[in-house]
Write a structure and sequence with these properties.
The chain has about 280 residues and is mostly helical. It contains 12 helices and no strands. About 75% of the residues lie in helices and about 0% in strands.
Amino acid sequence: MPHSTPPPDDRRRIEALLAIMARLRDPEGGCPWDLEQTYATIAPYTIEEAYEVADAIERGDMADLKDELGDLLLQVVFHSRIAEDEGAFTFADVVQSISDKMIRRHPHVFSDGDADTAPAVAGTWEKIKAEERAAKSGKDTPPGTLDGIPRALPSLVRAVKLQKRAARVGFDWPQTAQVLDKLVEETNELKAEIDSAGKQDGADMARVMDELGDILFVYANLARHLDVDPEQALAGTNAKFERRFRRIEAWLAEEGRTPDQSTLDEMDALWTRAKQEERGGL
């Protein structure tokens, strides 16, 4: 199948962006800040820009989404420019790599593969990814079940990915009720650790953190069993908390007060009022 190429105007715009970054990284007269950057120093900005893209999508702000996608594209261009300066690869190599990967992972579109439903496509995608991981490892032995899951992922996201991989080889609870039982068990272990620390007149924070981590891992597992994205669920709760707390601040402001000038009981009553308001109870 012939590959489509970008229209001339699009190519010129891409080339202009690459030229801007090359100018910024030019040792002769470039930007001092841009010249000092490395993959490691730019990585946090890359992650931040990806979250800002997601935020614009969540808000349905298309003008902002356009700008944020541009910011994210700049991150790709920046990393690629650093690599080109080092003689590692170029932006064109990045484009070629992802183009080849998309064609390879969609044999039902670009060759004679067969997948006519979304689940079938997902299955093919994962099978090809596993083959790619095996080829990339360069080892005679097959790669481990958990190989290739980035450590820099948000911890809840990575927890779900680890659990999904393990589940594919049968390491999973068959029923959601068993996950709930495990949650109770881990909660009791954390409570025991906290109680023990209190009796010893000093908390062993490493042990408390370990037990709390176990609980969060089980929560991620529960979300997976319920087919719920834990990041999305927590994001919804964060938004709900922010919305209700802002209502508390607004009601207190009407009385000429701020939260730190009120009592917990007063704020709790206003919280209940905010909940009732959202549910149509007022």
